[in-house]
Amino acid sequence: MIPLTPTTRIFLAVRNRDLRKGFEGLADLVAHSLKEDPLSGHLYVFTNRRKNRIELLHFDGPGQWVCAKRLAEGSFA
Questions:
Q1: In a domain, 4, yes or no
Q2: Is 3 contained in some domain?
Q3: What would the pLDDT profile of 25-45 be if each residue is shown by its tens digit?
Q4: In this predicted model, what pLDDT tens digit does every residue of 9-29 receive, in sequence order?
Q5: Is residue 19, in this structure, part of any structural domain at all?
Q6: What angle do CA 10, 46, 36 make, to 5 degrees?
């Protein structure tokens, strides 16, 4: 479970991203595209072109989380 505190900010990347990237690739997107610190403890959300998959990047102190969800049918609004 990813803890969301009142100080946790959620960043949604508005451009479609290649979600084949791992920890380092998503952290690079956060640093260079969003101009944020991937180790800040905030939550970063990315989606693919078809909007049927999302990935979340979060740093919780001891390490980074990458959580993914792919819809079997339909797309995220």
A1: no
A2: no
A3: 899 989 998 899 999 999 999
A4: 999 888 888 788 788 989 998
A5: yes
A6: 55
Question: Residue 34: which residues within 8 A CB-CB, separation 6 or more?
Answer: 11, 13, 44
Give the domain range for residue 37.
10-70
Say which residues have a Cβ less than 8 Å from residue 37's Cβ, sequence separation at least 6. Answer: 30, 31
Q: What is the pLDDT of residue 60?
A: 87
38 class by beta-carbon count within 10 Å (0-12 exposed, 13-18 middle, 19+ buried):
buried
Residue at 76 is within a domain: no
Strands 43-47 and 10-12, by their bridges, are parallel
Tally the domains of the chain.
1
